[in-house]
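Predict both folds.
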Amino acid sequence: MGQRVQKAVIPAAGLGTRFLPATKAMPKEMLPVVDKPAIQYVVEEAVGAGLDDVLMIIGRNKNMIANHFDRVAELEHNLLAKGDEKKLARVMESTDLADIHFLRQGDPKGLGHAVLRARSHVGDNPFAVLLGDDLIDERDPLLTRMLDEQESRNATIIALLEVDPDSIHLYGAAEVEATDDPDVVKVKGLVEKPAKEDAPSNLAIIGRYVLRPEVFDVLEETEPGKGNEIQLTDALQVLAADDEIAGGVYGVIFRGRRYDTGDRLDYIKAIVQLALDREDLGADLGPWLKDFAGNLD
């Protein structure tokens, strides 16, 4: 049995170039998904899994993220004076979510480097990493399952998703073998963004990890890989190849609802899907959407 994870790390230092010019002055993590910034959904997921100590790894010009999770006394006072308790509660929601810390990444050397920067905060304890591009529906508690598997196996746990083989080049791909649980596999190897013909499977790594602290020593020795960046996938490959380092790597196959906000088209789809599920929006949006779609050529 391993130690129960207490802390979450959210890398949020990327430039968001796929959303320019919107991200010229606004961090991509602050792009709204319906009426909340994407990063808030991720923090809510961590808190929902029992992780209320959250470290965000940020870059330059990301102060807007910190401001979002801070108090805004003037706004709160105005809403209170107007008697608008519903909006006040929504504003306070992000402020009271978690114990949130911020750390600058410094040089933008990739995801592996961002995770390595968390070492002083995490210490010698297992921890979760959540990427802001992947939003997991709260009705499908992936992270909780991953935390349970980490505690019971005392190993590194990654989230895997079956994707169209034609899309595997957009992800890290896993070479796996079955376990006695159909939703859990033993990871034997990982390849970062392989060509379709070189992919070991169509199981793609998505942005949820539960890592043992030994990953830090591996990342210290990891040379820059694709894009001349320190790739977390390369470090995980080392852990998968030698169970003695950190108990091996296992994958939880996610079969629930995931919203990709890292791509412009998928970002729009995510907004529509989440809005349709909202009690205050879905009843009106659904019929309008059907009518609009019916008028398309």
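Second protein follows, with its predicted structure tokens after the sequence.
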Amino acid sequence: MSENQTDEELMLAYRDGDAGAFDVLYRRHRARLYRFLSHETGSPAAGEELYQEVWMTLIRSRERYVVSAKFSTYLYQIAHSRLVDWFRSHGKVRLEALDEDAPEPPAEACWQPDRQLDQRQEADRLRHCLSQLPPQQREAFLLKEEGEFSLDDIAQLVGVNAETIKSRIRYAISKLRNCLGGLLA
């Protein structure tokens, strides 16, 4: 399997029985997908559970895969569906604070306790501010920032028009700026 193949080519190869193609797809998408799900649920444990469900859904439905959009859109449509189910089953409508034992970013080569404390406090503030966003704005913002999707891709994922997504992201950024005291660029 070539690392140069598109995601769509890899998924078609996986559909046709090439397990190595799945390995490449998994490596390409695992970190962003996990971060997205963890931020959306507000819990690394719930994010991990949904992360596994998304990949299992993809595996179970591989024989039915046809290229109708970018693979990442297909993957995040599965994630979106699992999130909707998760929120319904847990009766949740907003993000709670992330667990304290959430994975930390890699440490810098030179240990700087003051800087690490500042970064952790900033991350805590951002998580708090994200938790204050309405779910639709938070989802659109995280798909754009964590998932690196275009407005059109997000619109297709959640089933609304691109202008609606643009508005949701604009409102989310405005609310995050206010919450963070104007720190968000």
